[in-house]
């Protein structure tokens, strides 16, 4: 039954204006002491105009953000199989620990003697990452996965410069995440694309043909963005090393192999680890992330400042480039020392799982993905043959002649109460659907999702394309006009002018 | 394991459906010898109680900044964060959501980003702001790269008043893109004038970067500098580390700045030993398509209702790959939410009063320190942070203050380890959280340490 309401609200689905449309002069949500009227020493630059912020009381602010939150889909609410993003459960213990005053309430410039526990925590987190990857060194400071890539590629650039070599070409598979070529370009490299084989891996012959004395290295994601393990990874490592280049591994998908395969055993030189994927720090609607980078012996001396070292009975933070002999840091990537709040959460998660639990987690992630693949493979078109790792990739071949696109299907999945899979990535697969269930889902929830997908596919095959074109129907907003948004961008609220 | 729901029976049934004999079989593509057959050499799993105990033991080895009188700034500031902020950011709908790829079920995130962008544009006095960057230092580096794109030039002039971490990050980001970074480290007792900076601008200069208030706490009018930059076709980038300041001082937009960027930690975010923080980034309407990072825009849905989407993504790496404006992917989502909630609570009156209280407390502390023999405030102007010249090396004095349970400031030697001429300078920050007793404790501890 559809009818319009006076308020625009629909039961629990509540409309909410912008805060700028709700404010009243004289209202505030904080009680601060009355200023004393001290003569200012602001150099004569005292603010002489309004900022333009609305005034709201505390209950208004609480209600506003509560209402907004109810328009969001999160892991806490339901199944979120967004491929390549690893939307696993975010334990609340991690949040509790990160808020301990002895950890959250530390200023980054406190004297070392007052933050020994913090430095020890960073050192412990680093130790877990080193043992899990088998690598000799780690840089903890990168702010996110993309900055981890920058960290790894800058170390490679610095190592090449130290060797006096002018190698500028970086090989990147077509299936790579967009950050890989963007990062290589930011380090002054040119990007040379490597094609994929019929089975979704790097074309070894094409790769070998591209090697030369101008090649700085390869950026390879493993397991790759198609959710497959690069079975020739060791051969690739050997070949790139023989050619005088380095092997940067994009470790975004480390969650599939953690505790089971050590990247060091595959011949890598550098790899970033997205703590929000493998080690459950919250995605937070788009960050903050954290992207520590592990290094081989060859690249370790070039790791950026700052870093923690053990010194006597305590821990010391190295903050200058020339402090340690033999170290040649390429620079600094971030203010202060890295995403401490994320280290706390990741270490809490690692300690909770332990070596045994982490191994179980990656195994269950791969098992869940293969189970989903097995349940859907007869009705959907599998992109590549064989087992997958932590995520299953399909192309849109099964939608051919139905008039329904990957996007349409995703929108119909929303009405079924799930967050859709990743759409149209990786780019090497037509109309890609990348589904990552993660290890924290039950068999029952995967079954329910698969049943829902299969029913939608049957509906698409029955010729009801119109139904899909107009989905979703049951969301706070229906399909949004992205073209209009880009054509005439409105990026902020402005008061109405009379 | 409490986070893993599969039972032994589930696993067996699932393997049966797959047609595999074991989980190891699913890893058949792993090269010979690389598949481990036992857990690595790390401790086994622990229950919630034991983990919490471990982590509390680490926390107990630190001196919490709020457990003692504390006066540290230099790019991170201790402010009171209202309880509402943490309540909102811990709501699972915000905490456990991701990038709003499906805007129909992410209007919560998108609407607050639109509000965040409006707040940031308002306090900086600029036309538009993006959905946040990683932190102030990376925002500064991205601003320089953006200025180079916009002007098609390859040189940046950094003022000596810029925070050394911001300078180092900018130099790091520029070193492999043929971008020259000019300008020297500053001094608390000499401030570069607009004319001095103007001498460094040539026809290859993309931008001049100044910090406002600067790293030593000084406040300078950059209107003239903006005009000088524009006359030579360069942009003015104004960087800040203390977002509360704009409640008390004129906005950088009023000077004619082209890009304004910096650190947003002060609003809504805990100190967190340096991260995660939130980079704020604002510019003019004219330069919006050169901006890095995510942008949220207003639109309508199929039924004509107002809604929000991520927009202008043709600037970004997932579309443009090696030709993108930046390699940045995510923003600092949850930290930007904390900023938005705190700023919403403050509103016009609260924000300006908060700024006034910071400044009044700083004035009070400056006066108290000036009465101490061997200590003198060097700033003519400041907001909530100023530089003090001491009769002894500041690092030693800070250690002596720790022994008296006072976190007395940041010695400039920590920020400028290779500048022995700055050894005797101490950077002191004072916020609304500092009481009269705190200020008295600082003055008295300084007096003893300098005696």
Automatic annotation (TrEMBL), chain A:
Organism domain of life: Bacteria
Catalytic activity: N(6)-[(R)-lipoyl]-L-lysyl-[glycine-cleavage complex H protein] + glycine + H(+) = N(6)-[(R)-S(8)-aminomethyldihydrolipoyl]-L-lysyl-[glycine-cleavage complex H protein] + CO2
GO biological process: glycine decarboxylation via glycine cleavage system
This protein's record includes keyword DNA-binding: no
Region (Disordered) location: 24-53
EC numbers, comma separated: 1.4.4.2
GO MF annotation list: glycine binding; glycine dehydrogenase (decarboxylating) activity; pyridoxal phosphate binding
Occurrences of domain Aminotransferase class V (ranges): 164-284
Keywords noted in UniProt: Oxidoreductase, Pyridoxal phosphate
Gene Ontology terms: cellular component: cytosol; glycine cleavage complex
Domain Glycine dehydrogenase C-terminal positions: 362-460
Task performed by this protein: The glycine cleavage system catalyzes the degradation of glycine. The P protein binds the alpha-amino group of glycine through its pyridoxal phosphate cofactor; CO(2) is released and the remaining methylamine moiety is then transferred to the lipoamide cofactor of the H protein.
Protein name: glycine dehydrogenase (aminomethyl-transferring)
Species this chain originates from: Thalassospira tepidiphila MCCC 1A03514
TrEMBL record, chain B:
Gene behind this protein: gcvPA
Listed PANTHER family: GLYCINE CLEAVAGE SYSTEM P-PROTEIN (PTHR42806), GLYCINE DEHYDROGENASE (DECARBOXYLATING) (PTHR42806:SF1)
Naturally occurring in which organism (per UniProt): Thalassospira tepidiphila MCCC 1A03514
Reaction(s) this enzyme catalyzes, per UniProt: N(6)-[(R)-lipoyl]-L-lysyl-[glycine-cleavage complex H protein] + glycine + H(+) = N(6)-[(R)-S(8)-aminomethyldihydrolipoyl]-L-lysyl-[glycine-cleavage complex H protein] + CO2
Keyword field contains Nuclease: no
Family: Belongs to the GcvP family. N-terminal subunit subfamily.
GO molecular function, one term: glycine dehydrogenase (decarboxylating) activity
Name by which UniProt lists this protein: Probable glycine dehydrogenase (decarboxylating) subunit 1
GO biological process, one term: nucleoside metabolic process
